[in-house]
Predict the 3D structure of the following.
Amino acid sequence: MSLRTQVVALHTLVRKEYTRVFRIWVQTLVPPAVTTALYFLIFGNVIGRRIGPMDGFDYAQFIAPGLIMMQVITNAYGNVVSSFFSAKMQRHLEELLVAPMATWTIVLGYTVGGVLRGLGVATAVTAVALVFTRLHITHVLVTFSVIVLTAFVFSLGGLINAILATNFDDVSIVPAFVLTPLSYLGGVFYSIDLLPEFARRLSLANPILYMVNAFRYGMLGVSDVGIGTAYAIILGFAAVLFATCMLLIHRGTGIRT
Amino acid sequence: MLALQVRDLVKTYPNGVQALRGLDLDVPQGEFFALLGPNGAGKTTLIGIITSLVNKTAGEVRVFGHDLGREAAAARACVGVVPQEININYWDSVQNIVTTQAGFYGMTPRRARSRAETCLRRLQLWDRRRDSGRSLSGGMKRRLMIARALVHEPRLLILDEPTAGVDIEIRRSMWDLLRELNEAGTTIILTTHYLEEAECLCRHVAIIDHGRIVERDAMARVLRKLHAETFVLNLREVVTAAPALPGYDVRHLDDHQLEVEVTKDQDLNGVFAALSAAGLHVISMRNKANRLEELFMRLTAREGATRAVEEA
């Protein structure tokens, strides 16, 4: 198939994915906004007032970038896992597999769907954040590129999870036991400079820390980690996960018998 | 030109089951071809490999000359498939399911919508276009899968038991559609458990058993290979056992029915004469099964016996 027809196929898959996200917006866009509102109410207002400023910002402002990023990560990952895995279980994934679509078209189609949901959620959560605190963007390009790249990385992660999953337990284990702990320990609610040395060094092994801090740098202009290092880590993960997705789908792992 | 060329195809599943054991098959362009075999014979595995849903272990598959290994996209672009099991997105609308499939084959949205309308009208689903897949009846779901398979105008259409669970009227209209498509040049491969369907529609037949083709010929020639036909005779008189008719294999069914096997070199007059001599009168009779079914049972039984001897 020519590049033009691959682009048409990619557009079809992306349209199918975002149509799904916006068709079920009550399930996909509203819950993150509600959860974030509760975070701001409890951590930002009730507890945050007692905590005082952090890195020169009031607490609600400080946690806002992390809360946005946490929802982007969870939703980009969850979008691709649920969409691909349900297509696999209902067997309508076969519509893609019998068509002359290139492997990269399938990988990009699902991950772009995840990124779009991530951006949709980011918009909804930012709107909620603005009710509770003032926000401004210091570095527009950094803010936008980090959120897109992070959503891309976790969409790829979700795709790998869905490809390898054989039952519903397999798709809930990673979000519950890997993503949530890493997000909470990824500097969303605190600066790692407040941690003891051992915990601070341990935190540096958490990739989500770099994503949260790079995004906070884009919005507030402060970060616990070097922005160059953050980009290198995010791009490195994107490259490795993309290659893994390509290999798995090309081989037919989990999708062809 | 060959629409499908399969050479020495082997499929061994990870659990060790060998579904295909060096299968060879040629299907010429324009053919209406029946692929028959008992459950577990390897039909669905073969179709799975041709449509890229199953990875082959060894061998070669070419679709209109395109090697499935090296030119997968070109080969897939030629094929439309109606699978045995329902595999539609239950939450999507009927129209979206078909237009999306067209898009996956590289059709622009406008062309996809136009083709989807044509196919849905042809399959009598246009009035249900806004309904979700889950709201359709079993027969409608099957017709939707046919519309979806046709949307990109495939040169080779593969149907894996497409009329299972479909009522007689819809089945007949599906037959008409398939005949039209074939007359317009589409090569069709059909698997079915309704052997009457294969006998009625297909010009050539291959019978697959235990992962190998055990018979492949023109339907008419295959049917001529039958040695015998079985008739069920309804008698006026009560019979308690099968009467002895010299040269004929007779079985007792019930008080008024006998089953008689008549080979090619025998005739029914002989049966009637022998029964009359025994004081029995035939008031009606019918074929026990369709002829293809008999051949199918014989071939697969013969293969089983041969294999048992080989294994011994």
